[in-house]
Structure formats: C-alpha cells, structure tokens
Amino acid sequence: MLQNTGKLAGRTLFITGASRGIGKAIALKAAKDGANVVIAAKTAQAHPKLPGTIYTAAEEIEAAGGKALPCVVDVRNEQQISEAVENAVKTFGGIDILINNASAINLTGTLDTPMKKVDLMMNINARGTYLTSKLCIPYLKKSKNGHILNLSPPLNMNPIWFKNHCAYTMAKYGMSMCVLGMAEEFKGEIAVNALWPKTAIHTAAMDMLGGSDVSSQCRKPDIMADAAYAIFSKPKSFTGNFVIDEEFLKEQGIRDFDVYAVDPGPACPAENDQHCHPLLPDFFLDEEPEALAKKMQDYRANPKFQAGKEQASVATEGPVAETFKAIEGALNADVVKSTGGIYQFELSGDHPGTWYIDLKNESGSIGYGSFPGKADVLMSMSSEDFVKMFAGKMKPTMAFMSGKLKIKGDMSLAIKLEKLMTQLKAKL
User: What confidence tens digit (pLDDT) does each residue in 175-210 have?
Assistant: First the structure.
C-alpha cells in the first residue's frame, strides 16, 4: 500500500459524500498526515441500511490524526454547500482540495427509469459536481497546490455503456465533462482530474447492487484512497487526467495489489484454477466488449447472457424444464415468506421461452409463459446460462455488472433470488 509522506499536513480537504465508502477512505488517508477534512454529506442520523454518519466519520478522522468539520450537505442544495464552504474557510482558513464523491446510481433502461430517478442522478452527479466546484474554486485558486478530484470515469463513447442505463451514464459522464472543461479553463491555477477504479469497490452501494456475496469479487476503498493521495502529491500542472487507480499506482511503484482485495487470494491466473475469485471489472473500462467477455470466460464467469425475444417453440423437456422442476421441489411457505417476489424469465438460445417463479403467493409455484399478472422482476438471458446460474456455475452479479444479464424491476428482490440459488445448488 502507498505510504503516507505527511504532504497533506495542515491542508484542507472538502469531500462530498464522506460519511462512508470511498469518500471516507480518502478522508482517513489524509487524516493520517494531519489534514483538515470537511465532511459534506447528508447523513446526520444513522440510516437503517447504510452505515455511518457525518459525526461518526468525524470521530474516525480525528482518531486517525486529522481535524474534522462535519457539515450537513445535500449537493442539490446551493445554500447548504455555500454555508459549508464558508464554514470550512472560517474554521481552517481556506480550501486546498475538493473531492466530488457524492453520487447516485440507478441501473435501469430508459423506459424503466422514472423521471424522479433521472432528476436525482442528474442533480447529484452532474449538477452537484458543477455547483460544488463553482463554489470552491475561488478558494482553491488561492491554494499553493489546489486540486479538484471527481470520482468519475473516462469518457468512453462505446454504446454498450449507454444502452442498458442511459440516464446513469449521462449523469456520471457529466462529472467527467466537468473535468474536461475545468481542467482547461483553470489550467495553471488548479489541477482538475478524475479518478475511477479498475475493479469494483466494496461499498454499501455495491452490496445493494450485487448482494453481500459480491464482496469477494471487489477491492477495498483503500485502493482509491491511495490513488487519490498520490494525485494530491502531484503539482497543479498534473491536470485533465482520467486516472485509473491500479494503473496509476503501478506508476507510483506499487506492485502488491492483493492487499487491496476484500478476499485476498489468487486472481485467476489460469483457466484450470478452480479456487480463485475473479475481480469484477468496473463500468466504462471495456477494451472491446467481446474481448472483455472472453476474458471473463477465461475466469469461468462465462458472461454469455443474451436478451432475446421469446420464440414460439415450447421446451417441455430438457435442462431448463429440469431446472424449473428442481426449483418447484424446493419451494415452500418459508421460502415465499422470506422472498415475496414474482420473477419472470425470458430465455433465448437452444431452449427459448418465458417462465416464471411465484415466490409471493401461498407456497410458491413455477409456470411456463407469462405470469398472469404483473411480475416484480424480469430477467432476460440465454437458456444455457439460466441453467448454469441456478447450478451455481455462473455468478449473477458478474453477468449483471458486465451488462450481459438484463434485469428490469425491483433490484432488491433480484438480489434475494440469489439466496434461493444457493439453496438449490446442491440439487442441481
């Protein structure tokens, strides 16, 4: 891991969304140098599903050796940001570094994304980043080495990153366009860069997207904190860069990346290594989609999910039918009570068709064709991968994160389905 050098001692960092996750990890890294940290986040009271508040984060920062100023800030609210900036300057004498970390995510297609969600992502990701930067820049320009760092991806125009979650990509790329524009606008005055992880980072948001079991395929937020720290050590002439954490840290001499893994172990060096756990590649960093899929296949993730229209032929026998028979045999009132969802599967490939699993009514049931009502979750994939998924030979999170598994509807119920798959693994 990257060692602290003391270079951030006495410098003031303004971090949005710093009560947990990557934002807090960056704060704690800076605190070890004796930095001042403004925790600009919404969570003043504990969230029932998400850990940490601005006050608990402040305690950790001060315990690590820094000084903390917790501020209740919703980056959609100009007055709250302005007051936090004024408090930061009054308390610490200025602002040296701004980290635009606050973000909202909703991975649904155009027709399935309510405008309320679109507005939320646009206002937090793009507008919030622009607004916070605008209010901090006058003070950053006074710093000897002012930096803005947006946690946003490189501007990859491959349509694959738009087609499944267009609104999220637009909102996230808005943060990246702030880097592109402001780096040039304030060249020589402030360094403006973006930082993005090469692999998925284990945060509360990742647990909500992929379930708790996804952690073994993630790295800890520490890798992003180390990369951010290295960026802040650069002069303000280091600007306009879209930094990828692993690649940048390699340039700083870091060679051991296993220390950043949530579950350290072999990183799938060979196809016949049955004990390794592949790290999930993060969004927006594809080579070619086909090359990425091939690489994941080599790691036995086998992301072959392909959405397709239901074909007319009915497969009453074969692996899909056998899988649904096994699922039916595992259903009971307890499973229904713990799940409470209706799942519809649109399968393509050698055994196409539409099936459903009712885990909401009585003792549960399965059926061929569309559910006679409204399904809570719609999943589209190939029939071959459906069988592999329920047999435990393919991780749903890997397929979903790579964009190969299409999911529409209630994501929390989609995550619950993984528990049923675990129960069925022995039978299939």
Answer: 999 999 999 999 999 999 999 999 989 876 665 555
Burial of 233 (0-12, 13-18, 19+ CB in 10 A): middle
Are 22 and 97 a contacting pair, CB within 8 Å?
no
Give me the residue label for tokens 């045999």: 329
Distance between CA atoms of 22 and 223, rounded to whole angstroms? Answer: 9
For the beta sheet containing 242-244, the strands, ordered from the edge strand earlier in sequence to the opposite edge, are 67-72, 36-41, 12-16, 97-100, 147-150, 191-196, 242-244
Query: What is the pLDDT of the chain when averaged over all its residues?
Result: 85
Give the burial string for 109-145 (b: 16+ CB within 10 Å, else e).
eeeebeeebbebbbbbbbbbbbbbbebbbebbeebeb
Give 243-296 pLDDT, tens digit per residue.
999 999 999 999 999 999 988 865 444 334 444 557 878 888 865 445 544 444
Whose structure tokens read 């949005």?
Answer: 16
- The CA angle 236-239-240, to the nearest 5 degrees, is 165
Cα distances from 250 to residues 138, 290, 363, in angstroms, run 33, 26, 54
Q: Which residues contact 171 (CB under 8 A, 6 or more apart)?
A: 104, 118, 121, 122, 124, 125, 126
Euclidean distance between CA atoms 279 and 269, whole angstroms: 12
The radius of gyration computed from the CA coordinates of the chain, to the nearest angstrom, equals 23
Q: Tokens 């909500």 sit at which residue?
A: 208
Which SS3 state, helix, strand or coil, does residue 195 take? Answer: strand
Cite the active site residues. 168
